[in-house]
Amino acid sequence: MIFWSLLLLATSGLANIVFPAYNGPPRLKYSVVPGYFKQSSLATDDRTYDPLRDSFGLTDPSPHRWYRFRQNIHALNMNAPEGVRYVVLYLARHGQGHHNVAEEFFGWEAWDCYWAMQGTNGTYTWGPDAKLSPRGHSEVARTSKAWKREVPHGVPLPESHHVSPLSRSLSTLVETWKPVALNPPRPVCHELLRETLSLHYSDRRSKASYLREMYPEVEFPIEEEDPLWNFHRESEIGRNMRIKHVLDEIINNDPNTYIAMTSHLGVINSTLVALGHRPYALQTAGVIPVVVKVERDLEWTGEPVWRKKESWEIPKAEMRSVCPGYEPVLVSGQYVDGMGVWPYS
Ligand SMILES: *[C@@H]1O[C@H](CO)[C@@H](O)[C@H](O)[C@H]1NC(C)=O
Ligand SMILES: *[C@@H]1O[C@H](CO)[C@@H](O)[C@H](O)[C@H]1NC(C)=O
């Protein structure tokens, strides 16, 4: 595919990074407990199914549905053997962003080959750090109302929130949950919960000080400058490894049962892979709840779960021609170090 023939025109420094043995917390193994949510079943057509009009996909339609659901999850945890735990993940995607509008306008190829690396076409702006579009805000309001409707039926609200550092996800979280219940719990931002690493200008995050000011409800244990934008396009496998890593970190450190993660399509796809869930094309501002069995991964041998396969380059200011037939795009390298641990394959 032409898309992958990324051509580096200017010089790049070669980094020689050695990966130390991984000594962190236990690696986890996940599996989906079927039967609770329609989205877990292959019989559900993700292109037409609207869980916001159907109690987020809960299979039990009774008025006491969520009370029964809680009892079931509680019973699973009470009867779980040592080292096993059950959690309910609410995986939420951000509402439509300006970059989604632009991608639709330019078409996939012109977007990926040229416009994604720009922030504007002169009249419309989608980067850096694409914000929600007006439609995105109303999609999120609809999701928020859907949660509110389930409250009288006992829906378990998130006991903790984990969120991407990109504004479209942060706005989605705050606008969804502030009208229902937020702060507590205080959401925590994770640098690694962001969309596929790339040169896309819409995926360059704002400075941490700006995010703290814009989203005072959220905790930002991140650096001031974005260390991850302007990266080589991350492969799907690379992204799966990154998301497995951050998911393990989240689940290892979060003792709660009802855990919300608000992020991006690519992040959610990779989360579903880590959970062993069927693929599911989530709409903007959509939600997939998943009942998950969590166990220690006994086959884990102490090696890093992801590692770099080849030597890779730290780009300086570069001219890149991403696809033949498109103008080269000037991308100036912003980061200097601290890059050694991120996957690239
Ligand atoms: C710029 O892009 C927006 C959508 O992304 C589009 O509606 C608008 O017509 C474009 N402007 C020009 C001058 O092409
Ligand atoms: C995510 O998965 C859906 C369904 O399999 C697919 O249609 C979509 O292209 C994937 N998107 C990304 C960014 O991985």
From TrEMBL:
Whether Isomerase counts among this entry's keywords is yes
- Entry keyword set: Glycolysis, Isomerase, Signal
May I have one GO cellular component term? cytoplasm
Does the keyword section mention Signal?
A: yes
MF terms from GO for this chain are: phosphatase activity
The record ties this protein, via CDD domains, to: HP_PGM_like
Q: Which residues form the signal peptide?
A: 1-15
The protein's name? (Perigord truffle) hypothetical protein
Organism of derivation: Tuber melanosporum (strain Mel28) (Perigord black truffle)
